[in-house]
Amino acid sequence: MRSPWAQKNPFLSAWLSAANTTTGVARGYASAEMHRQMAAAALLPSN
Asked: Which residues lie below 8 Å from residue 35, measured CB to CB, with a gap of 6+?
């Protein structure tokens, strides 16, 4: 008997693909915000 965990599940595949896409978008926004803050901090006069 084959294991049910070894079979392909198209619904799980689609869900994981959507989750991966969402995570990638969130990572991109976070990275861009970090770069914006670093650029702004570099423009501040140092004491």
From this structure: none
